[in-house]
Design brief:
Chain lengths: 342, 342, 342, 342
């Protein structure tokens, strides 16, 4: 069996991460790669770390023959993504990694992304790609929307707690530490090594980060009532990794139990023993999520810490996991790579 | 005018930072350096970055003639420090950088540090060294206790708010990101470059960090009632710097105003315009503190972010500032070094 | 088919890297792990990044039943290794990662390692594990000696040139930049993050690095006359990776041609187009070697740059490649993992 | 006494470093700052680490009244610099940090920088700014050309050896490791943290780096015959610092003696004891140079290692040192800042 794969937007980090994962996937084979500004180039020129692979040259999207493609990963910027996907064959399976199909409500999309959605029917069709919570819908979906990487981390820590009703809903606070690659391969002064290494700062603070749209949608749905979390990400001098420190009210033991039981059967979600907390170093380069719970000296308060690799489980690994489901194969295919440490 | 200075415990990072600062101080001159295990060595062997300075050789403490010393900085480990200081001449001015004299209540000391204090009279005598809040007491003190570096950062963000009564006292949360040098020059596996770089994790979580003793003492005093904050530090792959993300309830504008007015005349404490948040990169190697305030989308909630250099303003710079006061000279002497960026 | 594997010395970085690689190997299964000081512990305690794997608990070596083992990787310190291997069953296949069996001449061993070899017959039996140059001997070997990681990098750049006779033998200079993990998980002050990050320095300079013993042995053998290279490694603030800048006299085009033709059929050795030079970032976490050649403005001088991951191709990946050969399976089994970038 | 200073091109790293140094300089006062694209902005917006200083707003160069300026530092890109300086008042003291006036021979300038020099008379007038070798000329100069940072490092290691005639002139090899800030604040993909951290690579290899023009000019002058060195820089994941590993033929003891005696009276140049080698960590943020010498196992071969901070002694610190000389004050004014470690 072979699954023919196209990657649209292969010249960015999530596109390259997909190529990395597909390199050892048992059935996926890359038949087309697009990279608009770099069309005509070899991937080895754009990403020399992929030099050992036999890959098609980068093309423009319109040059790709999609009749020969089983599934397309779309790793384009938001806004571009909705325009491109609307033009693809209507029966082509698509996993989108952009923000374009994460929010089901067009007005929420406009609120967070600043302009109206151009493909609202697709927005309606798309299934939210948090695998462990939408597995059945994903299996039958044609279009799956990858989640935000921060949004995934926060949800892994919080959804089971909201569903189990073990925490207060009005004082949830997420203080998140994010690695650099989450900002992509974009030329911004504050992403230069000389600016970014050896320091840390908060960004999109004050309730402005767009992944709040996902938190609002998903937590409110899980709770059956509006839930507004506080959320502040901090840029941290590491290339990969997200650590979410989630502060909640509730009984710490109940919090731990809710997570441990909800994830007991999940291959990629590991809940540590009560009181142990995870490190981003231990999931780097992998599809695993480590989650820890500890109580506070202030009674009735708990801290949940969840870590994942933003490029893998937070985007491209999740995308592959969802693609596996859509293709009807083992969900973990190609994703059992161990983390890379040190 | 010349002030003769001894540094006890000069072979650690805070001791070396004192030497660095004294190198360009207008009146201080180092006459003695102790380093028990490294006694007999030149500082240039222990810290080659100090090679250009003409410094006395490291000695054992008992070899130092304190009659020739105007002021001693004591940069020894806690517990050791109280034993050593008890043996020093009773009229020698001392700035202690350890944890030994930060807590005024002997039972609090025992609670956080695990054994009874051996010099409770000195503990009573010592003035808490948060310069901008104890300036007058420090001027007349013989023994000043340097604060914890995390404790200083949190207090700079919170004390004016508690004093001004503009925040709720029962839901204060400090999520702190700490650089590596705060852990000292100690041989621990998790401090190795291969273990620590490229990742982050929480430590002393769950209300266990010893600097909570200082928060409790100082915030409760400022509030006139018990205040119990939540506080979690995270080890961050940068050598210097602390960033405290402090979450409070209160009117964001009032929070900003309380900080800006309280610190308007303070040379080293800079409050950014409302909505701007600081980065640790901008105070590295200096005695400056940058503080920012932003509101949240959740009404009545604010975030205060304070940054400082743990080795400088968080310990050795603070120590020098206090020493300047004790010696009756310009408080900022030797401390106007600009941060080093990049 | 299943191959039962023991790893002796599994609590260090090369041991952990072996576990990482075996995790996706098609036929290897770990049946025993030793870690003397950590015997009794779970691997997840020693290396939390391996938490997702179902692994045997760490044991003492003497507790392992080797009758149930097909092949043992020995990742112990040198000197310890020769003592341990001498006590293993005489027909057990062993891949040793230490320095103990790299030098065939007992007097050379004593010269570089400072004491006599205690198992000279084993030393004689051992095959030098530079796979692409000793493939046939390795296939039939019982005991294979892993090469030094720096020694491997230098040899990949130089052996084909010496064999082809395209460079001068008396002015070879290797300036090497080595990542931190090569120093292992040892508690040394200069390996602390605060000491090692953000700087670089030479070490074992002046012809003192022990891997010179391997260069001497192998280059002299390849040349049929004594060859003494100059070699200086520099510690570089990156966790994985070695870059060898090799300066030679010879025609640059002939140098490139000698490498390109010698490695044309080698899956893991990639020679870049003439004039392109490699980066350690592009082989991180993988078994690949990238090699580039450029001429100098000084006629008749060339520079060869070779990069590899010291923990993978430089030690544990090489060990697995050799083990595959010894077990009679596809040499690249489990080793086609793509590099991890960024 | 007060010296009124203008900095042209203050929005780059060397401009900011000048501001940092002037902040504690005893007589210099900044009266004008230019930053073409950022004209109108406060320095605190461009470089928040300078927030505590009272600085003039950034202007366009043509807005500056130079009649009120004693000395201008020109930190503009090459080519721009020659055009700007040609328009400045003819009696204004200028220290240029660009490459425009380093090469005395117009044809050499054209060869290395790809176009004819537009101000050849100024080129003739300019004094090469390697302070310790051109001190007397600098004292009387109106226009001083700052050296390349790599060029300075290599010359500190080699000039005394060439002058003393203790090394061979035809096999000098400089393998250099350079920190990131040397590339400036420019938006290039390979300078992003995600691309640059955790790895290393050679650049401008093969005799193409422009600082070779300086080596050729200065070494040939010192030797009285043409000297062509080999020189390869490697980008290293650290923000500040250059380490030059210089390989020479000659008697190691004589090499050490030549350096030690030549620099015995130089405040900023420190020669370590024979056999000790320096680290970039020990000069970070300072104007000091550390130099070490070691012999090789190959007789008659030596290695010299020199380290300096590319932004300080390699450019802005050197510029200030030269400016001090031009202003007739203590050469070390404002430059005795100790390095920052860790």
């Amino acid at each position: 069996m072979e699954h023919k794969i196209a990657i649209l937007g292969a010249s960015g980090y999530t596109g390259a991460e997909l190529v990395r994962l597909i390199a050892t996937h048992p059935t996926m084979k890359i038949v087309a790669l697009s990279g608009d500004r770099k069309a005509g180039m070899e991937m080895a020129e754009v990403f020399p770390f992929l030099r050992h692979l036999d890959l098609p040259r980068l093309q423009k999207i319109e040059e790709i023959d999609f009749s020969n493609v089983d599934l397309a990963f779309c790793a384009l910027p938001h806004a571009t993504s909705q325009a491109v996907i609307a033009e693809l064959p209507g029966d082509l399976k698509v996993v989108d990694l952009s923000a374009d199909f994460r929010l089901r409500d067009p007005s929420e999309y406009e609120k967070w992304y600043g302009k109206p959605h151009s493909a609202p029917e697709l927005q309606k069709e798309a299934v939210y790609g948090l695998t462990e919570f939408y597995r059945d819908e994903i299996k039958g979906a044609r279009l799956v929307a990858g989640t935000g990487c921060n949004a995934a981390t926060g949800q892994y820590a919080l959804r089971p707690l909201i569903e189990a009703g073990v925490i207060g809903l009005d004082d949830i606070l997420i203080d998140l530490k994010a690695g650099v690659s989450g900002a992509g391969r974009s030329l911004k002064e504050n992403l230069l090594h000389a600016e970014l290494s050896e320091g840390t700062h908060a960004y999109s603070a004050g309730g402005k980060h767009r992944h709040l749209g996902e938190f609002d949608q998903e937590f409110s749905k899980a709770a059956g009532r509006p839930v507004l979390v506080r959320f502040t990400p901090h840029l941290t001098p590491m290339n990969r990794g997200i650590l979410a420190s989630v502060y909640v009210s509730g009984d710490p033991a109940a919090v731990h139990e809710a997570l441990a039981s909800r994830y007991a059967a999940e291959e990629f979600l590991k809940v540590l023993p009560f009181g142990a907390l995870p490190s981003t170093r231990d999931i780097r380069g992998s599809n695993y999520v480590h989650i820890g719970v500890i109580g506070d000296r202030v009674p009735g308060r708990a801290m949940v810490v969840a870590v994942l690799d933003n490029l893998c489980k937070g985007s491209s690994g999740q995308a592959m996991q969802n693609a596996n489901l859509m293709l009807g194969i083992d969900e973990a295919s190609g994703l059992r790579l161990a983390p890379v440490f040190p």
